[in-house]
Write a structure and sequence with these properties.
alpha+beta, Rossmann fold, OB fold (Dihydrolipoamide Acetyltransferase, E2P), 2 domains, six-stranded mixed beta sheet, binds adenosine-5'-diphosphate, binds magnesium ion
Length: 377
Amino acid sequence: MNAMTSPNLSNVSETMPVTDDYLRITNLWKTYGDFVALQDVSLRIARGEFICFLGPSGCGKTTLLRAIAGLEPQTGGQISQGGRDISNLPASQRDYGIVFQSYALFPNLTVVRNVAFGLENTGRPKAEITRRVAELLALIGLPDKADRYPAQLSGGQQQRIALARSIAINPGLLLLDEPLSALDAKVRVHLRHEIKELQRKLGVTTIMVTHDQEEALSMADRIVVMNHGRIEQIGTPTEIYRHPASLFVADFIGETNRFASQYQQGAVKLGSVVLNTDVPGQTDGTAVMVAIRPEDILPHSAGHDAASKPNRLPVTISAQEFLGSSWRMHLRSDALGEAPLVANFSMNAVRRLDLSEGSRLTVELPAERVLVFPKGS
Ligand SMILES: Nc1ncnc2c1ncn2[C@@H]1O[C@H](COP(=O)(O)OP(=O)(O)O)[C@@H](O)[C@H]1O
Ligand SMILES: [Mg+2]
């Protein structure tokens, strides 16, 4: 919270020359004794971008965020913000607002005093602070909660207050560490939209840490996927989802069927079935891992082009689960051997083809949806 109490730093970034990169992280390392928490992390973030750090628990997301905030100094590497090298600046001299998973509000202060906290330390006139706090409470949709104490608010409301407090001094950078993780599912989804809308309205460069892929996909302009202290991939949500750079990314974001195979002239074999792929650049004979997402498997009626064509195979539905908006089908086929294939079929397709447990059909695994990775990647 130091950064929120720092005087007038919000103006610094505005007087800096405008560069494409607002935040630039270069070859960042962080070690705890022998343990490497961040390994040569480099990243550029444009002004106004909404970035998510996404990855499994323990992969280094919070460590990276805390290094940017100056709360946990890096072991090596540089960080610059708005053209200024902040690598060695204490947290109090950096320009950001921060929100943690635990709301971290002062329990003994009212909502107004909580939101005003950072502003009071800037020495602004009282009338101006009162005006600004009212404006912030209106912005987050809680104008009538001014005199409440945190314990009198729901989790979602407390987190909105924490958000208001973090943006009170107009920071150049907004840092959010799993801000929605402690809330129930409904509130979480609702707040996703609110935070995103607020961020757009303010145009503030934002980094949000999350382990929730859906959250990252729905909120981020770009996602930084991390694993074991390293960046696996940086890209827009659709790039990351459609063109995962590694099997790790393909598995972590979305679901996949995966199987070992060998690459041969633009194709891989799934059991006895030939799957053409659009993936270039593999050498013939290379051992590969092949992945296909359940929703990319297309159902056709049983006789349809049968199994003679590539990327098609006859299957039987061995089990089905109703997911509300779709059906999750477990498919078996002699061509596949023991391994079942999991597919997601729309309600419409299931109705149209009259599918249920035991049904036979032909499925298509389109070439452009077959993902191929070098084995061991
Ligand atoms: N102060 C510390 N001392 C030793 N190890 C730490 C410390 N803080 C974090 N770590 C380790 O660094 C790794 C990354 O932690 P963290 O950045 O909190 O992960 P994430 O936020 O992605 O869940 C973890 O293995 C964690 O145990
Ligand atoms: Mg964390």
